[in-house]
Amino acid sequence: MTVRQLRLVDERCLCANNCPYCVGSHTAAARKAWMTHDMFGELQAVVGMANETNRLANGYRVPLEDAFTLAD
Q1: pLDDT tens digit string along 50-65?
Q2: Looking at the predicted structure, is the pLDDT value of residue 70 above 80?
Q3: 43 contacts: CB under 8 Å, gap ≥ 6
Q4: Is the pLDDT confidence value at 71 over 80?
Q5: What is the Cα–Cα distance from 66 to 26, expressed in whole angstroms?
Q6: CA 28, 30, 36 angle in degrees (round to 5)?
Q7: What DSSP string runs through the chain?
Q8: What does the pLDDT read at residue 60?
Q9: For 9-49, what is each residue's pLDDT tens digit?
Q10: How many CA atoms lie within 13 A of 71 on its CB side?
Q11: What is the pLDDT of residue 29?
Q12: How many angstroms separate the CA atoms of 16 and 19, rounded?
């Protein structure tokens, strides 16, 4: 993964965990390095969609498909 991709994953996880210090400091660092306001908005939309679908899957207790089960 590129540094940019790693920072996006990092930013996404921080937004999902909602730690004010982490979100603020990492968002500021990403914006200073490369992230535009539009990119941040798009990232937030993806985070929101993933959060919503995750909560729906948890609420409906959707079973994990065999294709995604890790072998021992």
Answers
A1: 888 888 999 999 998 9
A2: yes
A3: 8, 11, 12, 15, 35
A4: no
A5: 36
A6: 95
A7: --HHHHHHHHHHHHHHHT-HHHHHHHHHHHHHHT--HHHHHHHHHHHHHHHHHHHHHHHHTPPPPGGGPPP-
A8: 95
A9: 776 676 667 778 877 887 788 788 788 889 888 877 887 88
A10: 1
A11: 80
A12: 9
Show Cβ contacts of residue 30 under 8 Å, excluding neighbours closer than 6 positions.
7, 11, 40
Query: Cα torsion at 61, 66, 70, 72 (round to 10°)?
Result: 110
Pair of tokens at residue 63: 């079973």
Residue 63 has φ and ψ, to the nearest 5°, of: -70, 150
Residue type, 68: F
